[in-house]
Amino acid sequence: MNDAERMTKLEERYAHLQRHIAEQDKAMLELSEEIVKLRKEFVLLRAQGSSGTAETRDAGEERPPHY
Q1: What is the C-alpha radius of gyration for the chain, rounded to an integer number of angstroms?
Q2: How far is residue 6's CA from residue 39's CA, in Å, rounded to a whole number?
Q3: CA-based angle 14:20:24, to the nearest 5?
Q4: From CA 38, how far away is CA 34, in angstroms rounded?
Q5: Where are the alpha helices (DSSP H) in 1-67?
Q6: CB-based burial, 51-61: b 16+ in 10 Å, e otherwise
Q7: 4-61 pLDDT tens trace
Q8: CB atoms near residue 25 (< 10 Å)
Q9: d(Cα 33, Cα 39) in Å, to the nearest integer?
């Protein structure tokens, strides 16, 4: 293998790695945005759950229909 072939192979590998890194960066950004979205939804659900505890407690103290 001469220097020109070797250089060509290295350039091909480098281009492949650059594309791979760009794809990984895109995937990481999408995952980060998804995490932010899920955290917001979690906070809303937690707030709804804490405000609904009185309702759940009242429903739990009621007698079932078969009594």
Answers
A1: 28
A2: 49
A3: 145
A4: 6
A5: 3-51, 53-61
A6: eeeeeeeeeee
A7: 999 999 999 999 999 999 999 999 999 999 999 999 999 999 999 887 655 555 666 7
A8: 10
A9: 10
